[in-house]
Amino acid sequence: MKSSLLRTNEELSQIYDRHVQTVYRVCFMYMKNRHDTEDMVQETFIKLYSDDTVFESIEHEKAWLIRTATNLCKDFFRHWWRKTVGFDEVEEVAVEQDLEIDETLEKVMALPSKYKTAIYMYYYEGYTTVEISKMLNIKESTIRSHLHKGRKLLQIEMEGELI
Amino acid sequence: MRKNDIINSFDSINPDEKQIGKMFEVISGSVSKKRKFSFFNESFYKRAVPALGMVILLVSVSIVYMGTRNIPGKNPGILTSQSSDDFATMCNTYEFSDKDRILIDNKIYVRMTREELDFYDLSDLQISEEKGGKIATISDNSNEFYDNCDVYRFETREDTDIVAVETSDEFILFIFEQYAE
């Protein structure tokens, strides 16, 4: 796979088409509204343009985008957070109603970000705990713990239903 | 089943076509700006720095080359003076009307007579102590007596252009006579 410091518009367009949905989902889990999600998606791809990582495969490309999007969203809250409201309040911000949100998604979105990300990557993207650990640069045991706690919270929220 | 519920719920998080297009427009715009900036940052400097280096190298080589041309002995016809303000391009002697003359850098100097030395009150001076910087070496002359003699600026009389020629056993003073044609 070709990659350079100055990726061409064509390369950028191809990568965007391949992964925009994934990046959007990752960002939406953090931002919880369309407007901020769009901003973070744009930031992620703009960062991709000036990054000189040479991708070995489409999976590598996707992993880079998920990691970058996650970090950008976390950074957004780190910076914006201190000036406005506390973290807990942001976690409780209601998910924008212009998306069709079912009960399950609403419960997943209500999880703390770290659990939510682990659940998304494990169940939806199909990554193993080892892969998630490498991608997010977090210990594998921590990922397993996040998955466990996330599952537990969802079980409680789902009134004991197993996932 | 529950796992599928989660997968299905994540599936519902999707940007619509309009959003996808709008986001890409913003990304393209930003990338275009960065690309212009990068041209000056990278392409321009990647070209300019080696070019500037080449110019500096060429200038340095030229300066060194010009300097080596003026080393005494390497090119006997062109001589630099010891004092920085003079540059003798030619230095030779000839005899005319029974007087020794030397030609230095298009200027003709004539050997001072006893009367002239007395007139300038130079007869008792210790010339070797009062001579100035070396300005040339006589390399081409009709009188072997002056062969390879060094010529010094003689600065004792500031208003008079006098040079001193160092022979094997004495200094002989020459006074400016005229410009060579």
Write up what this structure looks like.
The complex is a heterodimer of chains A (163) and B (181). Chain A is 71% helix and 0% strand. Chain A is built from 8 helices and no strands. In chain A, helix 1 (9-31) packs across helix 3 and helix 6 crosses helix 8. Chain B is of the alpha+beta class and 181 residues long. In chain B, 40% of the residues lie in helices and 27% in strands. Chain B contains 4 helices and 10 strands. In chain B, strand 4 (99-104) and strand 5 form a beta hairpin. Chain B is rod-shaped and about 125 Å long. Residues 70-87 of chain B have low confidence and may be disordered.
Q: So how many helices of chain B?
A: 4
Strand content of chain A: under 5%
- SS-derived structural category of chain B: alpha+beta
Q: Assess the beta-strand content of chain B as a share of residues.
A: 25-35%
Low-confidence stretches of chain A: 85-94
- Calculate the terminal CA-CA distance of chain B, rounded to whole Å: 113 Å
**Alpha-carbon distance between the two ends of chain A:** 38 Å
User: How do the helices and strands follow one another from N- to C-terminus of chain B?
Assistant: HHEEEEEHHEEEEE
Strand order in space, largest sheet of chain B: 6-8-9-10-5-4-3-7
Mean pLDDT of chain A, to the nearest integer, reads: 80
The succession of helices and strands of chain A, N to C, reads: HHHHHHHH
Helix count from the secondary structure assignment of chain A = 8
**Largest sheet, strands/sense/barrel of chain B:** 8 strands, mixed
Q: What is the 3D shape of chain A?
A: globular
Oligomerization state: heterodimer
Give the SSE map.
The complex is a heterodimer of chains A (163) and B (181).
Chain A: H1 9-31, H2 34-50, H3 58-83, H4 87-91, H5 103-109, H6 113-124, H7 129-136, H8 140-157
Helix pairs in contact in A: 1-2, 1-3, 2-3, 6-8, 7-8
Chain B: H1 2-11, H2 17-69, E1 79-80, E2 87-88, E3 91-96, E4 99-104, E5 107-111, H3 114-119, H4 127-130, E6 131-137, E7 140-141, E8 150-154, E9 162-166, E10 171-179
Parallel strand pairs in B: 3-7
Antiparallel strand pairs in B: 1-2, 3-4, 4-5, 5-10, 6-8, 8-9, 9-10
